[in-house]
Predict the structure.
Amino acid sequence: MADTPDSNSMWGGRFGGGPAAIMQEINASIPVDKRLWEEDIAASRAHAAMLGASGIIAAEDAVVIDRGLATIADEFAESGVPVDLSLEDIHMTVESRLKELVGEAAGRLHTARSRNDQVATDFRLWVRTACGRIDAGLKAIQTALLARAEEHADSIMPGFTHLQVAQPVTLGHHLLAYVAMFERDRGRFADARKRLNESPLGAAALAGTSFPLDRDATAAALGFDRPMANSIDAVSDRDFALEFCAAASIAALHLSRLAEEVVIWASQPFGFVSLPDAWSTGSSIMPQKRNPDAAELVRGRAGLLLGAFQRLSVIVKGLPLTYSKDLQDDKETVFGAFDALALSLAAMTGMVETLSFRTDRMRTLAASGFSTATDLADWLVREAGVPFREAHHIVGSCVKRAEQLGVELSQLPIGEASAIHSAVTPAALAALTVEASVASRTSYGGTAPERVRQAITAARAALEGQD
Ligand code: ARG
């Protein structure tokens, strides 16, 4: 009879026997949702206090329940949450322990609530905390990037389009692009957090309850802005978790692009960065190897995060209102996304802090590929009144000739240059250094070192203002 244990003590009144072993295995969520224990106990304490204050249960019972729940919190903090599949989930694990500790009063805790509003409440609380933790991780990587950007406000590197050298930029400017992306990520988590902060507690199974409960009181006790207005919505929707996964996916994409750049920059043909020992791994066969595994893993882990959004969307997609057990898998999905993102953020922060930038190499390559050709065209427009389209053509001819001669644009013999167009003078060619190019890009949001310094100051002020 191993597959028909006793019927469940929480809901087994109408059952003659218990679930099959495999049924128990597929049904139980405790191995996963034990991570909700703090939220579950906090929500139960708020509920019990409200039941007592509203006269729905005796005040003494509320006190006994509260003490029992506090003891359970101490126990779980000390020794972890016991995993017993027959207790299904964190809600029943807590209630069953409460019964062992306080006896009959424990049976009154579940008055005017259901696991449906319980789990929705616990999960919202958990995601709310997770938004704060991810925000701290994003802030940390921004802080690291700002420090490196400041160090390299004047360092020149090639800027790319199509991974072809395009125009010289400052390394500081390039790094600040990621600071801006992570700032918007923080905005997305803040929005998600704001929208999710309503309490499902008191929606009960789906329809509300006949007991005179005070949903405002439990909402306030748990730091929610207000109770959710519709009990059906409260137990059914998981859009808050989807928003978390969506914001996490976009942040993961940003991290993945940065990781990709680290991988490219660390490869020998680029040689823009070297990774310290702490962030590299070796090869079991090639003794010379130093691989950027952490960056590659961050890049790959974005797959998990995008998958989490996809998985949760599919779980929710076809569900009629209200609760269906499919929703139980929401937590594993979101926990996995959170873990992957938190770890990726920490790893990228560590790499950003410790990368050593080979600025000589960057400076040399910044001048390659005729990267200041646009500067020559701009010079012809500005100083010689040539229309831009014509200037573009003239410079194209200069590049072609320089390429044939195997020289940089600035080294084009003046006889050759003036044969192409009389406006291409020695003064024009002198303006083609990468330093002059970068210094001239002073438009708002541009790469000139002075603009980069202003941008760093502004980003720091924004970051500190948010404390
Ligand atoms: N463990 C369940 C979950 O995570 C809790 C809600 C169960 N509700 C129910 N009606 N069976 O979704």
In short: The mean pLDDT is 95.
